[in-house]
Amino acid sequence: MRFDDAYSGNVFIGASPHFEEAKAVLYGMPMDWTVSFRPGSRFGPTRIREASLVHEEYSHYLKRDLTEIRYFDAGDIPLAFGNPTKSLAQIGAFVGQVLEKGKFPLGMGGEHLVTWPVVQEMYKHYPDLAVIHIDAHADLRTDYEGEPLSHSTPLRKISERIGGQNVYQFGIRSMTKEEVMYTEEVGIHFYPFDVLAPLQACLPQLAGRPVYVTVDIDALDPAHAPGTGTPEPGGITTKEMLASIHAIAASQVKVVGADVVEVAPAYDPTEQTPVLAAKLIREMLLGFIKS
Q: Which amino acids does the record list as binding Mn(2+) (predicted)?
């Protein structure tokens, strides 16, 4: 992908047309090749951009405006349709370029497997990287019905790469017995069901460290975010998710990249899910990108 021209499609609200002056790069990863239940998250990035227009550029939560941070919307990475191996390589190559340019990468999925190549690239630049993972599912399987490239495996791959002690999981309420045992074996910081309170307790441990934040929209209860491929009852509220993002932003951790994944617009005719995702993206931009 080129960075010297403005993205010609729909862009997220407040995006700058100039790459070089931008502190952050927003990009889409339109992949849903390995989903196990409902496809459609490849349409998430486009719909999130469109839904962003309902929001203001100013956040009253953070008292900041998008014009203060300068970010570039690079559009969607043109992935090899139906080919997960090649698509993951394309994502990794793109994020590698963003990091080489000294920009903050903020991705929109797409299924959760897209986070794996991003973290691989982040780890090359930040060898003491930690990952904050907010999700309904642990995503710690080695494979799904024999397939290791699955949206149920990214956090297993990440923990094997950066070390389980550097992975912090919140809000998990669906996992196998084997996944539970794995968290104990490798020392993953595992906090099921809730997000905000355990997250606030853990953030001081991560002070000063580079952290990648990955948010699966199904961490929220389906009442708040029905537009996702694997909805799981018993999740958190929109208010708690926003408060969690703000808690990270207000902490002493050094957020070096982030993503929001698994938005599948077709399952939410009310559009509350992409509207929520767009608001989370705005709050991440304003909260994680420091002046």
A: 112, 135, 137, 139, 216, 218
Q: Six-digit token pair at 265?
A: 């617009």
What pLDDT does residue 5 have? 59
Instruction: Report which DSSP code applies to 275.
Output: H
- The total number of structural domains in the chain stands at 1
In this structure, the strands spanning 167-172 and 189-192 are: parallel
Cα 54 to Cα 12, 46, 236: the distances in Å are 11, 14, 23
The answer as to whether 16 is a domain residue is no
Nearest to 88 by CA among 113, 52, 109, 112: 113
Give the annotated binding-site residues. Answer: 112, 135, 137, 139, 216, 218
Pair 214, 157: CB distance under 8 Å: no
Token digits for 3? 């960075």
Structural domain including 76 reads: 24-288
Please name the helix (run of DSSP H) or strand (run of DSSP E) that holds residue 210, with its range, or none. strand 210-216
- Does residue 19 belong to any structural domain of this protein? no
Residue 10 within any structural domain of the chain: no
Q: pLDDT tens across 225-263, in order?
A: 999 999 999 999 999 999 999 999 999 999 999 999 999
Q: What is the pLDDT of residue 2?
A: 59
Q: How confident is the model at residue 148 (pLDDT cuts 50, 70, 90)?
A: confident
Instruction: Tell me, yes or no, whether 95 lies in a domain.
Output: yes
CATH number of the domain enclosing 207: 3.40.800.10
Tokens 């191996």 sit on residue: 85
- Which residues make up each annotated binding site for Mn(2+)? 112, 135, 137, 139, 216, 218
> At 208, is the pLDDT very low, low, confident or very high (cuts 50, 70, 90)?
very high
